[in-house]
Amino acid sequence: MSLTLRLGPFISPPQNHLKFTFKPHPSKPTITSSKFSYLPIVKSISENSEHLSVAPAKPRWENMLSTAASLYPLYVTVGGIVACLKPSAFAWFVTRGPASYSLSLGLIMLAMGLTLELKDLLNLFIQRPLSILFGCVAQYTIMPIFGMIISKTLGLSPSLSVGLILLACCPGGAASNVVTLIARGDVPLSTVMTVCSTLGAVILTPLLTMILAGTYVPVDAVGLSISTLQVVVTPVLLGSYIQSSFPLVVKIITPFAPLFAVLASSLLACSVFSENVVRFKSSMVNASLASDASLIDRLQSILSGELGVVILSVLLLHFSGFFVGYISAAICRFREPERRAISIEIGMKNSSLGVVLATSHFTSPLVAFHPAMSAVIMNIMGSSLGFFWRHITPDPSTSDHELDDQE
């Protein structure tokens, strides 16, 4: 059995690449290397191999593309600044929405599907059902519950509450796999959880959104389900089919797919952000017009308005996912790499899907603001957590113990 997952270097282009081998039921972590100087490529999982081997180096141009694709948080941050300073820069994309949003997300998920082999993912699911099911169930319970609690605690408006809850009910994002690799977590587990939660989003995301957000505004669960099927599940399955049917073509396209997906995601998030930035700019201008107020008072006035509340709610939501996800996995006595993978998978959402569903099925543009803001904040938080864990060696007392999925 082999599971292929190609992830590019995050820090500096490597001189060679490592092939890590994982056993389906390791009693101990099979990787005990020192601190990574770059992000390796998880090449395969083989139950008959227990050695660490060196794979051929990739061409320099592929390393450059991989490194460029790893700068997703930077692209979103810069795009957000441009959206604040000149919202009209994204007008060409916004005026074609929501069709342009749906098309871009469909292409993003198609790129994801090109890198997946569903047969191997199914085999891994059969080998490790407990940890995978735990992560998926936790993802669709912890975040939605905290989304509702945070919206009520902060007294968000109905539109903002729906946007936060919709974001919390979205599946895990592909960026969680990269962050898990940085954090020395269980990458195969993270990959399978992402795929499973994405496939389950057809039913769970509309259902949970209807239950939790239906008290604020009418929610078309059937329409949400159809849209999720069209822009997420179908492209992933199509990409996987193309990957197995036309391997030579996919081999040519694959090096460019991650960078394309990253740029498309950034464009999608920043375009929605630019739609709402005028509204929030007005509150900032009103605060700055108070000539007798000090700089600190002006900042407090800005942050106490809608913009500050949105930022705070997104921070609290993702922090809750990271923290409660890790604690719950620790309580269930999973290994440390599994705890990190579950924590990151729960805390990082597919904000692009939230943007598409919000713009396609809700009349208020504010519904899409939380998912768009999340694209910036979530990736900064996730990357910071990944680098924090990267420099902390897992405790042997927790790493050596594994909850046996077969018991």
The neighbouring-strand order within the major sheet is 1-2
End-to-end distance:
22 Å
Strand residue percentage: under 5%
Low-pLDDT residue intervals, each spanning 5 or more residues: 1-54, 399-407
What is the approximate shape?
Answer: globular
Count the beta strands: 2
Give the arrangement of secondary structure elements:
Blueprint: E1 17-19, E2 53-55, H1 60-69, H2 72-85, H3 91-94, H4 99-113, H5 118-127, H6 129-153, H7 158-168, H8 175-182, H9 187-213, H10 221-245, H11 247-253, H12 257-288, H13 295-303, H14 306-331, H15 336-347, H16 351-361, H17 369-390, H18 396-399
Antiparallel strand pairs: 1-2
